[in-house]
Design a protein that fits this description.
elongated; two-stranded antiparallel sheet; four-stranded antiparallel β-sheet; Chitinase A, domain 3; 10 helices; 6 strands
Length: about 375
Amino acid sequence: MSPEEEPKEGSNKMVRVLLTCFLMVSAAFAQPTGTTKPAGQASPPPKASPAPMATPVPGPQQVASDAAVITIRGVCASGDPKSADCKTIITKQKFEGLLGATMSGNQPPLAGAVRAFALNYAQMTALGTAAEKSGVEKSSQFLELMQLMRLRALSESYRKVLLEQYKNPPQEEVAAYYKEHFNQYFQLGLERIFIPRTNPRGPRETAPAFEQRAQKLAGEIRERANKGEDMGNLQIEAYKTLGLPPAMSADLGTRHRGTLPSGIDEEVFALKPGQVTKVEIDPSGFSIYKVRTDSTIPVDRVKDEISLQIAKTKAEATIQSAMAPVQTDLNEQYFAPSLTATPPITPRTGTKLPAMPNKPLGNTAPPK
């Protein structure tokens, strides 16, 4: 079948299945998999380390680079799929190369995401082999799809190359950025007393009375906090007075600008150590904040964070420079929005996108 011929229905479905697999794998690493903790925010106390084990814990580090990490049985370029010799082997080095090419951001992927990527890649390999045998790669639909995928891969790779190129800015740039954004690295040690507006254990009909009592108590607690009484003790006392379950800790750790709700953030960062805010009211309850300490995060502790931000800024500037001379003109007769018209795309009958199987492909046990 030549590129100019229309693909058969089976080939049509195969191309759509391959596209679905590609998008699933791309989406798995489209966003950073971890959340970034704001600079200067206190970390929770470390958990006790388990007792030393007599033997090393198995993990990716113990697997040799040329060892098989994925074995897809029944998939081979030629031969009988039922033959014991018909299999495709992906080594650790090959697999991690695929991971690196697909990931975005600097956060390492979660183990579950890596496993899902491996299973999706195995499925793509199996479907790709079947597609090659069916002649899909010669269809016009596949060639158009590959052109689109190539452009997408080039765009994403270019962004990654730029970030890698700019990831180590000179120390002078880091210092200048730190000085310009100094307020971002000023942090406060905070405590907060929180009193809920409703009692989860109380009957609904008494809610207004409870809220009135809670607000009055919040005002009294705030005055005592302002006179220097311990915030933790006041938090416990407030909950006992209202008949609530044990109170949460009053210690918020260290916070920097932008980590509190916007009106409260401005008020809190205008205070000095030992001062408290007014009673802050929100839909969930009443809060009183107290500044315990203030300090500045040293530049050495945020150097990596600043370097990444500088790299992103430079990469974006390079991209904008490349896009500056580009102008796109659309045929408004074709693209103009309409309340009644629908896009002139008529899918062929029987072209419903097939659902991806929920179970792993074949035997996913590790190779022996």
